[in-house]
Amino acid sequence: MAELTANGGRERDDDASAPRERWPSERTAASASAGAAPSSSPSSAAPTSEGADNRARRADARAAGASGETNDDEERRSDFGADDGDDADDGEQQRTEAADSERHESQDRSGKKRRHALVFGYDGSSYSGLQFQRNQAHVRTVEGDLHHALCKAGAVSAENATDLSKISWSRSSRTDRGVHAASQVTAANLVVANDDPAALTAALNAELAPRIRVYDVVRVPNTFDAHTRTKARTYTYVFPLRCAAPAPDPAKPAVSALDVLLRVRAGFSAYVGTREYHNFCEGVKQRDPRARRHNSSCTASLCELVGGELVPVADADASFAADLVAMRVRGSSFLMYQIRRMVGFVVEASRRLDASASADDVRECVARFLRPEVCAVAPPTAPSEGLYLDVVALSTYAVPAGSYLIDFEAEPLKSQRERVLRDLIGPAVAARVGRAFDVWLADRRFSPFPAFVESGDLTKNEDEALADVELFLDGVRERHARASKLADYAPGPPPRAGSSTPV
Questions:
Q1: Which helix (H) or strand (E) holds 479?
Q2: Average pLDDT, whole number, for the chain?
């Protein structure tokens, strides 16, 4: 079980209004009271005209309203339109949820689907991301394996085995191919035999591959949504310090490992606050409101992997030989490829600026790329092998004893999360991130540094961005020509004047 507190209030740094949540017993009680209420409606008599039929329906509606019956759409709107900004309203909501849950506990539990949260972590090296691919059965995903284990354990019926929407599946955060997670929460309507979540947790771990470990199965309110309940996400990206070092120049003094660390740290500090990330993601154009994201922190620390565990290293002991940089960013939400491109741009800025450049120069380069008036070719996407979802922070919800919080930074979830980091994610990062960055840097060798323009004219920006794309493609063609690969697809030089070579 996670942390249990007696207070009825929620944490005040929640950045989104959470829905008012009700247990199924509330709707059942309302329906029962509606059925027991007397009705003076004339609907029992057969109507002799369309007008009489309409009058009968209106009378039925008035009788249902008097007996406490509510329309599902209206109830849904009132639930999700609640304002959580007031402490008194929030406490009243949780007291209502707790009272409903007490009534729910007295009901028969056998064979009924009820809302549960699955708390787990995984090594994503051999998976094509977290999200279940319904129309691509051959693609292995974390949710696919988890769903199969739930079916084997009897928590999901056969008729719901092929469609996650039938059990109202939701997730706190989605990860891409090769990305790991030490903290992940999904929610679904499950059948838990004998109302024993601990037995289901053991059954899932016995069925799942060792790369996925379920920490707990938690009973949650009926309208619990893992995505909307997640108020913050913290990701960590690990990469070798040597990859951010500029190329040696015989005419200039070599850059020390400490100087490279300070460069990288200054570059990442530019991401703190509310910034425009249209240049760091897919499918979001300049001045699109979705591009505006807020990061409460973005730090870089020196570490080394010892037995699969990241051990801090003092800045004064920085070395290119074995030291790693752990970038840790906390924000409300992130766009596709955003974090990997944040890392890729800082590494490229540190590498491409010569030895005479300072840490402030790297920071200014990154900050300039985040301006809303800047349109550019997307920065390079760093490899997925070094990225993992470290912590997800969820808001509290009501239970009979008070309020309940799924907290990955408190026991017992903290120790289970650290075990997955040490036994699964740490070794996977140590085995792959060094080689992945070597390949990535070799691939970047003939690619230009992302150029950008500043102008209030969006059309001009797009035209110049297309020119940058052509420059980028020229570098790709040169790389493939030098590697003697994909020669049939690389366009050759234009024919010379007077040549008979066909175009």
A1: helix 458-483
A2: 74
Note the Cα 332 to chain centre separation in Å: 9
Q: What 3-state DSSP class applies to 358?
A: coil
Classify 289 as helix, strand or coil. helix
Percentage of the chain beyond pLDDT 70 is: 64
Q: Taking residues 214-229, what's their average pLDDT?
A: 92
Three-point CA angle 339, 276, 456, nearest 5°:
140
Distance CA 408, CA 84 (A): 23
Q: What is the dihedral of CA 136, 138, 142, 147, to 10 degrees?
A: 80
| Distance, C-alpha 482 to centroid of its chain | 38
Rounded (5°) CA angle 336-337-340? 150
Question: Counting Cβ atoms within 10 Å, is residue 423 exposed (0-12), middle (13-18) or buried (19+)?
Answer: middle
* C-alpha R_g of the chain: 28
The owner of tokens 């499918």 is 283
Dist. CA 403–CA 6, nearest whole Å: 6
Q: Are 295 and 330 in contact (CB under 8 A)?
A: yes
Residues 256, 155: Cα–Cα separation, whole Å: 56
Q: Answer for the pair 82, 20: CB distance below 8 angstroms, yes or no.
A: yes
Token look-up 């994909």 returns 486
Are the C-beta atoms of residues 168 and 89 closer than 8 Å to each other?
Answer: no
Rounded to whole angstroms, the Cα distance separating 140 from 156 reads 19
Residue 304 vs residue 298, higher pLDDT: 298
Q: Which residues 6+ apart lie within 8 Å of 16 measured at CB? A: 228, 231, 332
Segment 174-206, tens digit of pLDDT: 999 999 999 999 999 999 998 899 999 999 999
